[in-house]
Amino acid sequence: MNSPPDFELRGHRFPPLTWKGMSATQQAMVSAVLQGKRGAMQGPYNVLLRSPEVGQLAQQFGAHTRFESSLPLALNELAILMVARDWTAQFVWWAHRPMAQEAGLPIALIEAIATGRDAPEDLSDAVQAVHRFCRDLIRYRQVSDAVYADVVLHFEERGVVDLMATMGYYTLVCMALNVDIYPLPQGVQPPLQPLSLRN
Asked: pLDDT tens, 67-100?
């Protein structure tokens, strides 16, 4: 297998791997990520290369949750931001905040999530439904019948599963980046402040 195009593997605790130093399974994972819709090995993939079978499954799962979710893009990004805030995952927040904003997620909601404040009251019903579901699942590790029914009303049962899948995948991503102490781009200040009390 030839060396892929230039790619960057970086982190603090997990030293970068070279193409020649990778096993065939690791190289296959790198090739799959680079040939997919992401096209880059940033984020958790240097960590996940240490268990390339898990990494290969994770990158496939992640590609589906990010690019094939039945949820509207803005609401998928809402779920990602809420998980990133819960983990204070600086790189995930930095990467996905502009995506959420470009997808149409209200800036006031993004800022409320970042600072741990309550969501604005003037959100659409669908945004409120997803926000409450994510908030309660993060806060209580479960959701009420009413919160569940509201997401089903807007997005059917598949929407509930796709929402949980996005939250689950990005929990793995946030864990990997936080354990790795993955850096922000040079010159970028951490966008999230620690929250003294989880909401």
From this structure: 999 999 999 999 999 999 999 999 999 999 999 9
- What structural domains does the chain harbor? 24-67 (no CATH), 73-180 (1.20.1290.10)
- Whole-model pTM? 0.90
Closest by Cα among 133, 38, 122, 142 to 78: 133
Residue 199: per-residue pLDDT:
45
List helix spans (H) across 37-144. Answer: 45-48, 52-67, 73-87, 90-102, 107-115, 125-140
Distance (Å, whole) CA 83 – CA 99: 15
Q: Which residues of 43-56 are buried (b: 16+ CB within 10 A; e: fewer)?
A: bbbbbbbeebeebb
